[in-house]
Amino acid sequence: MKFFIDTADVAEIKDLAATGMVDGVTTNPSLVAKTGRNFLEAIAEICDLVEGPVSAEVTATDFDTMLTEGRKLAKIATNIAVKVPLTWDGLKTCKALSDDGIMVNVTLCFSPSQALLAAKAGATFISPFVGRLDDIATEGMDLIAEIRQIYDNYEALSTEILVASVRHPRHVVESAKMGADVATLPPNVLRALANHPLTDKGLDAFLKDWAKTGQSIL
Ligand code: E4P
Fold it and tell me: Which of 6, 10, 95, 214 is most exposed by smallest CB count within 10 Å?
């Protein structure tokens, strides 16, 4: 399973890339706004930092302007995945860009029918938002199971399931069990994946006992 980092914060990406766990990056207009940085400059910098796909989202809502924006974003680097919203104009843009060989991430997916359309439009990634579904008292992970089932029924559908709006490690574990291809993780969730109180407790006890021996390995 691939892990993308869900942030536009270059310092965070640098720090986490050093763990060897980062296979790509996703951004959205809200994450970019949080950095206060110039969008195009920040994206170019991120593309230099990671080899894998870097999602950069269009902000127009009509087909012609989305396509122009998408083509401009794709020119920033070869690892750009143009992010388009799941609207009819977004799907048309997805089809046009993927026909040109550009990676496309179709975002704001909240239903299996939307995911089916994105795959038919040639999306490289579909981004179902599990956390936002949980927020409205719906089981977000059920959507991942349904999309997996649908995509697995048709060999021609090669779109990767990119689990988005991830809130906690349980979302990641459930996604992996269901065979999702990618999860995009806020930095705090990636860090939390390694945490367990029994690991901390066990290490503390080992180090205390080691100190009693008065020895040193080096
Ligand atoms: C990533 O592609 C999505 O934009 C992001 O995961 C949304 O997360 P949120 O629901 O926490 O804003």
Answer: 214
Residue nearest to atom 12 of ligand 1 (CA): 165
Ligand 1 atom 9, closest CA: 165
Measured in Å, residue 125 CA sits from the centre of ligand 1 at 14
d(CA 98, CA 87): 16
pLDDT, tens digit (0-9, with 9 covering 90-100), for 150-193 = 999 999 999 999 999 999 999 999 999 999 999 999 999 999 99
Decide whether any atom of ligand 1 lies within 6 Å of the 29 Cβ.
no
Ligand 1 center from residue 158 Cα (angstroms) = 22
pTM to 2 decimal places: 0.97
Cβ of 105 below 6 Å from ligand 1: no
Mean residue pLDDT of the chain comes to 98
Which residue's CA lies nearest to atom 11 of ligand 1?
A: 165
Residue 140 CA from chain centroid, whole number: 16
Q: Which atom of ligand 1 is nearest to the CA of 107?
A: 2
